[in-house]
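SEVERITY: medium
COMPONENT: batch folding queue
REPORTER: lab tech (J.R.)

DESCRIPTION
The queue accepted two submissions in a row. Attaching both inputs and their returned structure tokens so the on-call engineer can compare them side by side.

ATTACHMENT 1
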Amino acid sequence: MRMRPTLSWTPPGDLPPGTTDLEPVADALSAGGVLVLSGAGISTESGIPDYRGEGGSLSRHTPMTYQDFTAGAQARRRYWARSHLGWRTFGRARPNAGHRAVAAFGRHGLLSGVITQNVDRLHHAAGSEDVVELHGSLARVVCLTCGAFSSRHELARRLEEANVGFAPVAAGINPDGDADLDDDQVGDFHVVPCTICGGILKPDVVFFGENVPPQRVERCRELVAEATSLLVLGSSLTVMSGLRFVRQAAEAGKPVLIINRDPTRGDRHALARAALPLGTALTTLAARLDIPVVGQETV
């Protein structure tokens, strides 16, 4: 029997409480060299729900695993039908005040880098540079047979042509871009192959049950080693892919600061957790540091 990855975490009762004090974060940003680690919570104000917060998608949705995706054509049909419908909304999402504040901190030389667990590219759209996409990006597609990369926009066009009239009503959209559809709504959705070799196409993201590429993990470890402090934004740190960097920073004696409304698996390692909405907290910090947060986006 195949084991499914751990998707949930129950906070123990002895975690340090969250506060509303942003002073430790302001001090860290003023000192510079801050490495940002962001999660799904930073994108909720852009209309993309998170996994585990109030109303999080895990309460109704189990994300596709790599093992299920590669196991059979029916699983891939279900995935691409849901993902194609979700992309119509997901691909139109725009950066919010939190993304823009992070970009502003970077422009003013306060950050040493950004690691994001998100696959939405909203940090890029807000103007952040040198972002490490820990779990990849939905904007790219990779062929599992020949390894060729292609644009998600091009794939969306091909899927539209192959599935004229496909327009079911989804119950919701998830942080991985997947729409909630039942099997009847998926129907006989037609999946298109790689245009080069006819192989299986997969979004260039790390599915649950799949490992982050080792070279990407090593790059993140280097960023943690080079940073003065680590600032976690909107992540429960439930999965090890992000938690390991919090542990690395703490073991090296670097301050770990967290802004997340709910308790996180990294709270024990943190100097403080501010239990505040991210957009409000980050714009408040920018104002306190006299840093303008502009609305201009890149494409």
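ATTACHMENT 2
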Amino acid sequence: MTGTLVLAGTPIGDVKDAPPRLVEELAGAEVIAAEDTRRLKRLTQALGVQPAGRVVSYFEGNESARTPELVEALLAGSRVLLVTDAGMPSVSDPGYRLVAAAVEKDIKVTAVPGPSAVLTALALSGLPVDRFCFEGFLPRKAGERLSRLKEVAGERRTLVYFEAPHRLDDTLAAMTEVFGADRRAAVCRELTKTYEEVRRGGLGELAEWAAEGVRGEITVVVEGAPEKGPEELDAQELVRRVRVREDAGERRKEAIAAVAAEAGLPKREVFDAVVAAKNAGA
């Protein structure tokens, strides 16, 4: 019998948010893989639980090398608990490689749901939550950061980012440049902790605020791109599009109706443009 890999969410701030099952798993797992063993020790002390299993480190620097060892433990029948410093493993934290390796070996993978900075910030932002996408951390280099933001400039869903406090001002300035100063956003700082703060406003306003310096764990939520209005086309372009359709075999009436629908304009406006071009000999 193979073992089970358990991904456990840990508190993002207030230790009282820890789910009861987390305590059970910490006490019963044969192996605990922790992003930071010192932080794990502080967490177990706060929860009043004494892990009985072997504790190993599992962080970005040793994730590739440690994964085969943990897979071997799982294949031998061990229950392996994976915890990161805060929130859910694999969400901008170590875990993906181990989950992928376990799935490949047909090892059972389950989870202890817990606090999530992504969902908490999204809920507190005051921005639309029906559709969203998580973008993680942006690149550190300015050029790469701008390129990544331009890739989602037209994204209609609400965007969620993690960011380091010392890079927040540069990130918000870049977002202002790409998305516009008036695009609504929320900067969520120190969620569930003593100095929790949610600052809401336009990106330009938030960039000015962040320039003074911000501390703590940061999650940024940005409103999606606005819905595009009717396409703005001049009379010459309207006539050109009608002629393209006529040349393809459509009757003029049908071509005018189709172009009007594409541009979000009344058919009469397109018709008048075609007539005016004909009268001008164009």
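NOTES FROM REPORTER
The first strand starts at residue 4 and ends at 8.
No errors were logged for either attachment.
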